[in-house]
Write a structure and sequence with these properties.
With 475 residues, the protein is of the alpha/beta class. The chain has 2 domains: 101 residues; 309 residues, Rossmann fold. The protein is 48% helix and 15% strand. The chain has 20 helices and 11 strands. Helix 8 runs antiparallel to helix 9.
Length: 475
Amino acid sequence: MTERLNHTLTESIITLLCHDDDYGKVIAHRTDPNLFEGDYRVIAERAIDYWKKYGQAPKEHTDDLVAHILDDPKNRRAQTYRRILVSMIELAGSINAIYVMDRLNAFNRMQKLKDGILKSAEQLQSKQDMAIAEVEVIWNDLLRKQEPNFDPGLQLTDIDHVLTTLEYKQSEFLTGVEPLDRARIVPERNTVFLVIAPAKKGKTWFLTEIGKQAILQRKRVLHISLEVDAEDIIQRYWQGFFGIGKYKEGDYPVTTLKTTDGYVESFKRGEAEPSFTFQSPLIRDELESHINWLGGKAQLLRVKRFPTRSIDMRDVRGYIDNLELLHKFIPDMTIIDYPGLFKTDIDRHRLDLGRQFEEFRGLCVERHMAGVAAHQSTRGGMKAHSVELTDVAEDISVVQTMDKAVTYSQTKAEERLGLARLGVTARNERGAFNCLITQNYAMGQFCVDWAMMDSKYQNLIDSMEKDETDEDDDD
């Protein structure tokens, strides 16, 4: 497994060296090409020479660097080099550069240690006890020459860097709900975004929508489920992307909103018509056609179902490591649905659960990815008109650990009308707001329309319920 890890990291580093003008420059200055092994060493030597001569990454000229091998029909390594070059091109568009650069020190250190071990073994093999002094010199040099950290830290004068980073962090991911996106209540790298909702009230649909939005932004998404089967999750992603109808017969009712200055004024009930449904005799052909339309984005999602109470964050960490080692899949976003179903010690369930959330946030920082999770509200929250942050089930430290949290509330009347409310409560009580969304789960749409709410909203709900009751009486 260590060998595979080294291979994956090597390929990521050499991809940045050959295809990234910013990070490739750092690698070219800090990495000895002799630290690469086998065919990678040849590419690294040529790429670093290119950097010294032209001051930029070779990019499309990378194959020219090894043309003497590729064009030689007698060279048995030509096919291997072609495979490496193609793999680098595929990896370049979705590589998590910050994560790779954080591990550059580990790569350099590991390769130097391996070289030291080989040299020590050669000396001991040939000179036996006479080589002790020489071996000690080798290891003293290794222990003295520590690699400098990639990131030396920030200064007050790093204005452009800080402003650019903050702007990018707050716009890289979206939720698909415009009021949240506009207020930048969105997932970010190195943080965890939490959705709090009653049981069976849309948590998974919300998480799926967030994952869909990330994929549309060309981000790699790992969706871990402890409750819903992976096949059902994939079906929801299909519906979210393509608006597929779940059933063949009947209406697909949807509520649209009339607004004034962004606030809801009235509702209108209508019907939506899907382009095709899961009951279609050509469903496979339809799906294949639509997935082909996604192109490379269709490869950016991995969904994994684990049995309830069977894993904890250590298992999640191991699974993500294996995805990188065996499949070269490094997630930009990891969704967990939901951590409340992790394996815990029954005698200390609340404490264990709080620690699991802390470890999830720590893993997001370590791997420079965005974390998204759902959590269930208490029984009181399930009965309440509006779910609050204080309604979180089990340990309140769950909310305190999270960076951003959104509550999902829905009365029975709102559920019948395809409505739901999302609440944002800032910890300092600034920036708090509630928004109304319309939904159509039968076509996989978490948010069809939206509006802000004021005191008139409840009167509208009461009036619409009365109208529906009168229509039923007339029928």
